[in-house]
Amino acid sequence: MIIKSFELEKLKSTKVKKILFYGENEGYKNQIINNFFIKNFSDNFEKYEENQILNNYEDFFSSLLNKSFFEKDKLIIINRASEKIFKLVEEISSKKIDDVTLIINSGILEKKSKLRKFFEKEINTICVPFYRDENKTLISLAYNFLNDKKISLSNISEEIIKIRESKLPDPKKIGNCGSFFKNPLIESKKLDELLKKHPQLPYHKNKNELYKIPAAWLIEKMGFKQKSLGNVGVYINQPLVIVNNGNANGSDILNFANSIKDSVKKEFNIELEEEVNII
Fold first, then answer.
1. pLDDT (average), residues 131-140
2. Residue 165 confidence (pLDDT)
3. I need a surface site. Which of 91, 106, 185, 266 has the fewest CB within 10 A?
4. Which residue, among 43, 33, 100, has the nearest Cα to 72 in the 3D structure?
5. CA–CA distances in Å: residue 121 to residues 125, 127, 225, 239, 261
6. What one-character-per-residue DSSP string does 87-127 give?
């Protein structure tokens, strides 16, 4: 069964357990997966890369069968999936494993794709295409959102300011320079290595075949959220923002930033780059 992008609200109430998301719009796919599925399953979900499963196929399938006997309503997400995952989908369907919700997240799939055809034609499956955003589509989405929320154009500026103030401290009250670090970009091989150790690592594919990792997630994982050292610290609502809580000087802030960079480098082998200009 095919669900179009304007019908995505149907996913909130669906009882279908096998779902295929495919297409280039990784950001939109991840947004739907997080908002419509992961929130509902709380901590009872697992993320995999396709190669993780293919390299340990028998063990994975055996564990899947065991989980279906002892757990209820588990969510399994398989990212960067290709035609190679089709065998697993067939086996899950034949075994009638109904207490596991399976989400297959793929890139572009041609019309002749076996994986795509299976999800489009089977009664108890859902197939959702995610196409690259175009200006016309974005304008339409924005108009519908504003109309539904009854937000007039004159109020957009106020809404943006409210959102920004909820995330960033007022520099008049708390010294800061906004986002301190850029989101790092890594190659596919590096991503595979990280996902083996950190399967919950969030990422987004960009146009250059690189993967963007949220720096805020890396910083929070290293225990720096809300952490302070003397008069310097990380803002409570946003790990990317370093704040001056009193009389810190430039050296204090730079040393604190370097301690964050060193910790992330040691754990993830990722070099954070400053977004601010250091004079």
1. 64
2. 63
3. 266
4. 100
5. 8, 9, 47, 45, 49
6. HHHHHHHHHT--SEEEEEEES---TT-HHHHHHHH-TTEEE
Q: How far apart are CA 208 and CA 267, in angstroms?
A: 25
Q: Is the pLDDT of residue 137 over 60?
A: no
Query: Would the pTM count as exceeding 0.90?
Result: no
Say how far apart CA 90 and CA 122 lie, in whole Å: 11
Burial profile 77-103: b = 16 or more Cβ within 10 angstroms, e = fewer = bbbbbeeebbebbeebbeeebeebbbb
Q: 200-216: per-residue pLDDT in tens?
A: 888 887 777 789 999 99
Structural tokens at position 243: 């704040």
Around Cβ 176, how many Cβ atoms within 10 Å? 20
Per residue in 200-258, pLDDT (tens digit) is 888 887 777 789 999 999 999 999 987 888 889 988 888 888 998 888 888 899 999 99
> Which domains are assigned to the chain?
5-132 (3.40.50.300), 164-268 (3.90.78.10)
Are 126 and 18 a contacting pair, CB within 8 Å? yes
DSSP 24-56: S-HHHHHHHHIIIIIHHHTT-EEEEEHHHHHTT
Report the 10 Å Cβ neighbour count for 4. Answer: 9
